[in-house]
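Technical annex, item 7. During the second reporting period the consortium partners agreed on a shared format for inverse folding records so that results from different sites could be compared directly. Each record opens with the tokenized structure and is followed by the designed sequence. A conforming record, contributed by the partner at site C, is shown below for reference.
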């Protein structure tokens, strides 16, 4: 049985990855400090170690006998990363360095890393392929770039092979509702809509309706978290079959506008939502969309969820 350490495996994306690996009969240990992750997200098949990526000895102990690491233990609030870069430097950069160094010491040779479309910054062309220049416009994105660069060096110098998966907009929940914990204090569009729909907040705003897009609101590439999870399992599998190290976009290649998300949410929820139009949010590109063909080809992966209503339904199911 292939033994995988899922670091950050109690978080939103990590818990879906852990589920996918368990479904595919991997031996899964989740390593998480529970700062934002929740034990409620774990099924009983996953072993659990409560530990921090800043605790090098604990990380090393967790890596004994492990065949591959999946690293999803990052802080991810873009705004916070600009206010408090120190926090992101320590958690995302020092923490990632610790993971690589612990892998070297424990002779673990394979890593799948949770990267982001934030490495690209403002798109110079669309759809964004993996050759697009990396030019992050926030510190969060910079921490992801740094880890990608480090992994390339550790491959050359220490033979560690990697897959960096650059997620576009992750949304949705496990359709079987096995992930129980909702994220606290959500920063992203769909969870904010859910908070408004359930009166946890008093409505929401659409940031900008004067963009040069299909309906004036921003367009994004929304990828279901269970599809992301499947890609991680395939990435592990490919590393073991000798596939070369890669950076891969994970998206659908299709855009959905903010207005379309809101309209679809109203249909799924079955009632009108309370919202207003507000000025553009600083730093938002009009359109972000992946060219995801490389992941399709290299991993043999295609997203199963392509209908935004179906995706939203898996999120709404968490509320009902
Ligand atoms: C989506 C769209 C908003 C809230 C961010 C990071 C990215 C990645 C994913 C990762 C935008 C609009 C939002 C609201 C709105 N990070 N919006 N009203 O900014 O595309 O991507 O999360 O871990 O690196 O930048 O996602 O969900 O914040 O916004 O109108 O109350 O919804 O302007 O067009 P974004 P988002």
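Designed sequence (site C submission):
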């Amino acid at each position: 049985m292939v033994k995988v350490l899922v670091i950050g495996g109690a978080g939103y994306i990590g818990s879906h990855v852990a589920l996918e690996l368990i479904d595919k009969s991997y031996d899964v240990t989740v390593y998480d400090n529970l700062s934002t992750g929740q034990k409620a997200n774990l099924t009983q098949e996953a072993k659990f170690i409560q530990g921090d990526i800043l605790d090098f000895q604990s990380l090393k102990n967790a890596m004994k006998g492990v065949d591959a690491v999946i690293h999803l233990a990052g802080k991810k609030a873009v705004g916070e990363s600009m206010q408090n870069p120190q926090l992101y430097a320590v958690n995302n950069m020092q923490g990632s360095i610790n993971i690589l160094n612990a892998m070297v010491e424990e002779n673990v040779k394979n890593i799948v890393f949770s990267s982001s479309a934030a490495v690209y910054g403002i798109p110079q062309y669309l759809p964004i392929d993996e050759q697009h220049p990396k030019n992050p416009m926030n510190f969060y994105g910079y921490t992801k770039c740094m880890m990608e660069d480090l992994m390339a060096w550790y491959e050359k110098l220490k033979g560690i092979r990697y897959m960096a998966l650059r997620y576009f907009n992750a949304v949705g929940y496990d359709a079987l509702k096995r992930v129980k914990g909702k994220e606290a204090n959500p920063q992203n569009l769909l969870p904010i809509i859910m908070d408004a729909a359930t009166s946890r907040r008093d409505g929401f705003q659409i940031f900008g309706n004067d963009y040069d897009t299909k309906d004036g609101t921003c367009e994004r590439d929304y990828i279901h978290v269970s599809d992301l999870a499947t890609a991680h399992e395939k990435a592990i599998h490919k590393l073991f079959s000798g596939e070369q190290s890669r950076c891969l976009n994970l998206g659908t290649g299709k855009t959905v506008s903010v207005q379309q998300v809101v309209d679809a949410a109203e249909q799924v929820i079955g009632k009108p939502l309370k919202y207003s139009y507000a000025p553009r949010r600083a730093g938002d590109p009009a359109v972000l969309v992946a060219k995801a063909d490389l992941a399709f080809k290299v991993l043999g992966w295609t997203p199963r969820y392509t209908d935004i209503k179906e995706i939203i339904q898996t999120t709404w199911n968490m509320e009902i």
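The radius of gyration is 19 Å. Residues 85-106 form the longest helix (22 residues). All partners now use this format for quarterly exchanges.
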